Amino acid sequence: MGNAMDRMSLIKPPRALLVKFARGSMFGEPGNVSRQRRIILDALTALKTMTVPGTITELPYRWKRSDPE
Amino acid sequence: MSLNLEKFRAEYDRWVGESLPDYLAGKMEHIVKKYPFITPDDIPWTPYIGKPAAQKFGLITSGGLYLKDSQVPFDTSSIHGDTSYRELPKKVRQEDVGIAHKHYDHSLAKQDLNIIYPIQRFVELEEEGIIGRLADVNYSLSYVNDAVTLVEKTVPQLIKGIREQSIDVMFLVPV
Lengths: 69, 175
Known about the structure:
The complex is a heterodimer.
Chain A (H helix, E strand, L loop, with lengths): L4 H7 L3 E4 L14 H17 L5 E4 L11
Parallel strand pairs in A: 1-2
Chain B lengths: L4 H20 L3 H5 L23 E6 L3 E3 L18 E4 L7 E3 L7 H5 L7 H9 L5 E2 L2 E4 L6 H18 L4 E5 L2
Parallel strand pairs in B: 1-5, 1-6, 1-7
Antiparallel strand pairs in B: 2-4, 3-6
């Protein structure tokens, strides 16, 4: 995973999820267990769905906002 | 994957020379913009095969985590960073872990380590059978600028440990 598209485009990870959270809180607010779990499940799904090298998918989660259904 | 380490080494040595005064003055944003990132010629790729429920997962963070009672903290003073890593047991508790990394705010991770190292969530997924196993030993790096030593020395050591544990999938959390 990563949080900085400019750096990720230089480093070229094989597959990655992009989050919109700051350094030091890659999974969002402390204690948001359901979001932490969802991000990992998103990653497990991405293992199967990302079939093109270099794919980076932005996740929809935002700081102190409810997660999408 | 092809990396031109010699080209990077020359650019990196120049960056260190030019950036050291700003680094010592704590002007990180200024020097980060000039850092000569290594860009690989191609994208490394291993197709995913299998099912998470039948596989072993491992976790790496770059949050600078170490075991307070038994491990030396990372070097947080050098402009080169610290190219070593720490092994963290699967059953590590929040109170066991220190953070040695000067370049991010630790206050949120001290409330909930899982936002930079989601170990509890992986343990739960293992207990539920969503993943097959979580590795007994997982890893933390810290702040690193010296990518040559990282690539030539640290990464081979990490890969050796990952292979010895027969880990199928690594989950990387940069911090």
